[in-house]
Structures are given as structure tokens and as C-alpha cells.
Amino acid sequence: MARDIECTTPPQTPSRGQNAGKAKKCRGSRCLVLMAVCSGLICVLLLVFIVLQHFSITAERDLLKNYKDAVQVFNQTISRLQDTYSDLMTENDQLKYRFNYLNDELKNAYEQGFHWGSGWFFKSNDSKTWFQSRQYCRDRGADLVIINTEVKQSFLTSIISSSERLWIGLTDINQEGKMKWVDNSPLKQGFWSQGQPDDYIKNEDCVELVSSTPSLNNWNDISCSDTRKALCEK
After folding, report:
1. Distance from C-alpha of 209 to C-alpha of 214, rounded to nearest angstrom
2. 3-state helix, strand, coil in the chain (%, to 5)
3. Beta strand pairing call for 165-171 and 229-233
4. Which secondary structure element, helix H or strand E, spans residue 61, and what is its range?
5. CB half-sphere exposure, 206, CA atoms < 13 A
6. How far is CA 123 from CA 111, 164, 210, in A?
7. Residue 147: phi, psi to the nearest 5?
8. 0.85 exceeded by the pTM?
9. Is CATH 3.10.100.10 correct for 115-233?
10. Per-residue pLDDT of the chain (234 residues; tens, 9 = 90+)
């Protein structure tokens, strides 16, 4: 039998040049992968930056819009307040005019007088001493008022200003402690403030009506040389 003789080719060892080529190919592939990864990261970073910029711009735009809205509301409020102030000043001027008008009318009414019961009452515009005030009344056919009832006392107190102090026709100048009216009738019922009359420093002989105190307790004795307005009765 003939033997088949196998011809085997011994394994070939790669040459140094082939190994170097393969190494170059591997390094090139790695560089491409690295470049691709870097490019991807850059794209991601750019995308993140763009998104953040978008949110930032949107937030700034919203903030600017809110600021503009706030400024607009503020300006509208200022405008309304200015209009309100102008209206209030106009109303204030009208009220001042009305007050002055009514005050003049009141003064005229006092000067001209008013009826109550069977009496005619009026008040002076100027403050004078008790004697000068009495003369003012007498020059007009009247005299300082005589108050001898609670009803009359309450009425006269109610129709005069709350800040006024007026002479009435009561005095003890002729005899200390003996109060008499201008018609020489003695005082029977007084409407004195608390602690009055006190004849302070022995020089208070005339009587004023102080309207700011309770209506049935508002007489006060003071010096006849003090000045008050006159409350006259005719």
C-alpha cells in the first residue's frame, strides 16, 4: 500500500510589518470612537446650554412682563389717587365755602335775633366787658338775658355755639353774695358749674354762660372787666 504522504505547511509567523499595520488600525479605530464620544458630549453640553438659556430667557421675559404689569398697576393707582385727591380738594373747597356761608348766616341770624316764647334774643358779634355788653343790648332796646327756668336755660344753651362764653344779666356787684338780675330781681334758681360761684380773688361779680359744659350747670362768675359776647333779650 502506498502511503499518502501529507504535506503540511508549517504555521506562518506574522511578520513585524503586519503587526505594526494592525496596531495602527486599532489606534485609528480608538481615535474615531473617542472623537465620536467627544462630539456626542459636546452636542449634549450644547443642548443643555441651549435648554438652560431658553429657561433663563423665558424667566427673564416673565419677570420683565411682571415688572411692566406692576408698573402699569402702580401708575394706574397713582392716577386714581391723584383724581381722588383732586376731588377731595374740590369737595374741601366747597365745604369751606359752605361753612363760611353758613357761619355768616349764623352770625347774621344772631345779630338779627330769634324768637322763643315771648322773648326776642340776639347776640353781639364782638367781645366786650359786662358793662359794655349790657350797653350794647340797651342801645338796641334790650338788656342782658334773664334766665329763671330750666326750660329757658336748656334752650339758650342748645342754640349757641359749643365754644362760646356769653354774658348774662346776673351780677352781685352792688352787694357781694347777693346775686340780682338786671331788672333788680333776686336770683331764685341758679345753674352753676361745679364749685361756682367762688368769687376768686374777691373780684368776680359778673356771670357768664359757658356752653361747653352741661346745660344745667354752666354758669361761672368772673371779673366784670373780662370780655365776652353779650346774650341779649328783648
Report:
1. 11
2. 50, 15, 35
3. parallel
4. helix 16-112
5. 23
6. 6, 11, 14
7. -120, 110
8. no
9. yes
10. 444 444 445 555 555 555 555 555 666 677 778 888 888 889 888 888 888 888 888 888 888 888 888 888 888 889 889 889 989 999 899 998 888 877 666 656 555 678 888 889 999 989 999 999 999 999 999 999 999 999 999 999 988 887 899 999 999 999 999 999 999 999 999 999 999 999 888 899 999 999 888 889 999 999 999 999 999 999
Contact yes or no for 179/172 (Cβ under 8 A): yes
Question: What residue ranges do the domains of the chain occupy?
Answer: 24-112, 115-233
Encoded amino acid at 64, one letter: L
Q: Which helix (H) or strand (E) holds 170?
A: strand 165-171
Q: For the stretch 188-213, what's the b/e string if a residue is b when 16 or more beta carbons lie within 10 angstroms of its beta carbon?
A: eeebebeebbeeeeeebbbbbbbbeb
Residue length of the chain: 234
The answer to whether 158 touches 114, Cβ cutoff 8 Å, is no
What are the grid coordinates assigned to 182, written together? 338786671
